[in-house]
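User: Just a sanity check before I run the rest of the batch. Below are the structure tokens for the first item. I only need the designed sequence back.
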């Protein structure tokens, strides 16, 4: 609806996402940005048009303008522009052809190296060599990832994060020349979307927003309702692990996520991270 007032657009998008009403005040500023955020969608099919290097560079700069824990700046971005390198990475991810087809591919890195280098250069001790350093770098990387997507979507680009590169963390790390204490957090496909945005419903706020005291005593019921709503707007095209768990007529998000986590994945990631020099204790 091109002439729809923006506050109605935001309310409509959130209603569709969360299956509950929202009061959006027409006087609030930034409704165009809220509409973009509320209308977010990952994209896995792209038009055959390049993303200009200058644009990609500007998006990296916007992404790295995100807040950073203690201003430590422990997230980096790697633009994979070399076709031969892309050709070496994408066969590792055969189930995700969008990693091959996306006009641009970026890898978000957690960088715990710079800080230890600073300590060495300045001759200061480094007693904080424990899980918190890894955690801070990983959180910074996640924030940079989300900010990159937000900046890209403002331009009209579409993105798809790719955590599956961590199934091959050591190989990807070698291909990208990642040194000690630098690890890949996620890849990011970037391109001009082929399809319009598709809203993926999220869990209701009664499940995910808490006030003053954590309470999930009524979550199970709300999640069942969510499963049913999601089935009406975005049913799963395919059920996961049918050989192990069978077909279900009422297959929903809970089944899908329970089945996803019933299958071991990346059990060696901790070993990889430790071998990269992070201390996880
Ligand atoms: C850290 C992270 C890693 C992800 N990894 C993958 C991936 O490996 N492959 C993929 O197709 N989508 C991946 N996604 C996209 C999610 O599947 C997607 O965000 C989710 O299904 C919700 O859909 P939406 O983004 O369209 O709302 C990832 C998302 C995030 C935030």
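Assistant: Here's the designed sequence for the first item:
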């Amino acid at each position: 609806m091109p002439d729809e007032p923006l506050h109605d657009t935001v309310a409509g998008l959130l209603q569709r996402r969360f299956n509950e009403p929202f009061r959006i005040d027409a006087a609030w500023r930034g409704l165009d940005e809220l509409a973009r955020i509320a209308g977010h969608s990952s994209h896995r099919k792209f038009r055959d048009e390049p993303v200009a290097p200058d644009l990609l560079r500007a998006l990296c700069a916007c992404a790295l303008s995100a807040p950073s824990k203690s201003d430590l700046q422990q997230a980096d971005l790697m633009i994979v522009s070399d076709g031969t390198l892309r050709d070496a990475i994408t066969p590792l991810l055969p189930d995700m052809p969008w990693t091959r087809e996306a006009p641009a591919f970026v890898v978000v890195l957690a960088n715990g190296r710079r800080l230890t280098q600073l300590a060495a250069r300045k001759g200061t001790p480094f007693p904080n060599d424990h899980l918190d350093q890894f955690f801070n770098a990983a959180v910074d990387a996640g924030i940079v990832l989300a900010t990159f997507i937000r900046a890209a979507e403002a331009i009209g680009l579409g993105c798809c994060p790719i955590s599956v590169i961590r199934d091959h963390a050591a190989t990807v790390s070698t291909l990208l020349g990642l040194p000690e204490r630098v690890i890949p957090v996620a890849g990011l496909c970037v391109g001009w979307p082929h399809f319009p945005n598709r809203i993926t419903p999220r869990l209701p706020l009664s499940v995910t927003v808490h006030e003053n005291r954590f309470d999930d005593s009524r979550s199970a019921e709300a999640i069942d309702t969510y499963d049913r709503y999601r089935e009406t707007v975005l049913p799963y095209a395919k059920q996961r692990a049918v050989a192990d768990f069978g077909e279900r007529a009422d297959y929903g998000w809970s089944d899908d996520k329970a089945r996803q986590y019933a299958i071991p994945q990346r059990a060696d990631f901790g070993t990889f991270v430790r071998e990269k020099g992070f201390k996880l204790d």
